[in-house]
Amino acid sequence: MAIKIAPKVWHWLTIVLAVILVILFIYWIRSILIPFILASVLAYILNPIVEYWQEKGFTRTGAIMLTYFLLGAVVLLGVIYLFPLFWRQLEVLMLSIPAYTNQAQETLQSFYNDYRRIDIPFTIRQEVDLALNRVEAVLTETTGQVINGILSVFSYIFSILIAPVLTYFILRDEGCTARRLLGMLPPKWGTKVVDLWEEIDVQLIRYIKGHLLVAFTVGLLTSTGFFIIGLDFPFLLGIIVGVVDIIPYFGPIIGAVPAFAVGILHSKSQAIGALAVIFIVQQLESNILSPKIIGSSVGLHPVWVIFVLLLGNKIYGVIGMLLAVPVTVTLRVLWKHLIVSWALAGEKQ
Fold this sequence. Notes:
11 helices; globular
């Protein structure tokens, strides 16, 4: 006897299969999506500024060009005054790595020699040795990953250069393509898609703009604190702390590792000072900056946040961790509207 499957079940199976195929296709072409992702994020951030100038009487093209001019002026000032400082510190850091490595080995050997003089049971000593080796390996690997991450930015130079061009066309389109696609849908579906986007927009605008501003402030405060305590490469290390601060929970830990590593090679007090600076800045962020700038959270449970961060790191490294929470917020809204709401509506019919 043949098993009959209701048309409604076929309908939902088709939707699920289509979603899986789209996800697999996106994963397959992920290496070429970077400029388009950068352009989309940049257009999303700049669009309110463009609309502001339009309200002041500028045409759409004029508003975009004015926004680009102001953004270009800020970037130019950064290149003139900040990039040389960043490059000098990066160059000195690269040249100092062999010396830092030797100094780190000497410090660890000195600590190990002092530790060997302590009279403790052999089995406990073995476990302590294994733990010390693991800590050393983790610190070395993490520091190397951070440095490689900084250098890998230059491998994306083409994507970074082409992103503003793509951003212009996205802003110039002014939603025409989206409206044409909506026009191809039934009116009932079009209304649902608009409602869906409005909710996603509210969630993402709060997360992206708020976290970017918080990360910039954290980077600035951290660089200032590192400069005050006399830590080497304060500007470079402050940028690292600011960038990784966008990553919830893990960001402060990742940012603290290179600062602590540079500090401990100079003196224990400077390493403690570096951690103290990061701790103070994180307290300011948690108690003042984030509540004032971001407001309420995106509503994800901490366990889910940690899971999607680890998943993002597994799929696409640091970039995956940066995109993990915004993508999860979007998928959560999609789940609510496309699966839960529509399924319940179908049952009522």
